[in-house]
Automatic annotation (TrEMBL):
UniProt similarity note: Belongs to the adenylate kinase family.
Pathway where it operates: Purine metabolism; AMP biosynthesis via salvage pathway; AMP from ADP: step 1/1
Segments for region (LID): 122-159
Keyword check for Nucleotide-binding: yes
Binding site for AMP: T31, R36, Q57, L58, V59, G85, F86, P87, R88, Q92, R156, R167
Region described as NMP: 30-59
Notes on the domains: Consists of three domains, a large central CORE domain and two small peripheral domains, NMPbind and LID, which undergo movements during catalysis. The LID domain closes over the site of phosphoryl transfer upon ATP binding. Assembling and dissambling the active center during each catalytic cycle provides an effective means to prevent ATP hydrolysis.
EC number: 2.7.4.3
InterPro entries the UniProt entry points to: Adenyl_kin_sub, Adenylat/UMP-CMP_kin, Adenylat_kinase_CS, Adenylate_kinase_lid-dom, P-loop_NTPase
Subunit structure: Monomer.
Name of the protein: Adenylate kinase
């Protein structure tokens, strides 16, 4: 099962990725998490990515494509994978297609910009695992603490309102064209494509995914 999660920043991709990963036993490949890990480790990739990420801009296609290709070649991806945050531009999608990487499902989470800005202000993350919470809509069992490890939760640097608005501009300009791209792929019989109302509560979105993926 090879799946792409498509949607604006904060649309709920990471939240639902946790469910899909556990239920279907495929690894989550989150380019955002991989880039944040590179920034933390201060690798040369991390140093290049940091400046762009802090400004709410996308990292260059070449860097991200190389990162994903390397990750997909790992043995744990041989039965499938879940791409969360990739592809994010048409050149990224083209590069994947040119490498012969087939996609079974493209799942689009549809959420309006106003809802996104509200959601981001309440997001809390567990940095090591990438687990995502929301203070109101998806709270941890104990405030500020990760459910599994008991470690403290943090706020992402790029979740401040002004940066979120910049990320939304990038989304509309560079990522939204992928909706048409993959709808055409569906017409050509190359993938399944589903649009999900991402404004529903977390459990309802999960239930809808379960119905689609079986
Ligand atoms: P990345 O980490 O991928 O961020 P993003 O796409 O902007 O997505 P988010 O993680 O912000 O949101 P999400 O959809 O996963 O939402 P979540 O589930 O957390 O990328 C960060 C940066 O890295 C980019 O800006 C870019 O610079 C770079 N980058 C990454 N990939 C790249 C690429 N391919 N090319 C170039 N650059 C790249 O949910 C958000 C909040 O809402 C949470 O608090 C959650 O609890 C809550 N929530 C979720 N679902 C619901 C619901 N149904 N109802 C209510 N609340 C909900």
């Amino acid at each position: 099962m090879r799946i792409i999660l498509l949607g604006a920043p904060g649309a709920g991709k990471g939240t639902q990725a946790q469910f899909i990963m556990q239920k279907y036993g495929i690894p989550q490949i989150s380019t955002g998490d991989m880039l944040r890990a590179a920034v933390k480790a201060q690798t040369s990739l991390g140093l290049q990515a940091k400046e762009l990420m802090d400004k709410g801009q996308l990292v260059t296609d070449d860097l991200v494509i190389a990162l994903v290709k390397e990750r997909i070649s790992q043995p744990d991806c041989k039965n499938g994978f879940l791409l969360d945050g990739f592809p994010r531009t048409v050149p990224q999608a083209d590069a994947m297609k040119a490498s012969g990487i087939k996609v079974d499902y493209v799942l689009e989470f549809d959420v309006p910009d106003e809802v996104i800005v509200d959601r981001m202000s309440g997001r809390r993350i567990h940095q090591t695992s990438g687990r995502v919470y929301h203070v109101k809509y998806n709270p941890p069992k104990n405030e500020g603490i990760d459910d599994i490890t008991g470690e403290p939760l943090t706020i992402r640097k790029d979740d401040h309102e002004d940066i979120v608005k910049k990320r939304l501009v990038e989304y509309h300009q560079l990522t939204k064209p992928l909706i048409n791209y993959y709808q055409n792929e569906k017409k050509a019989g190359n993938t399944e494509y589903f649009r999900i109302d991402g404004t529903q509560p977390v459990e309802k979105v999960t239930h809808e995914l379960e119905k689609i993926l079986g």
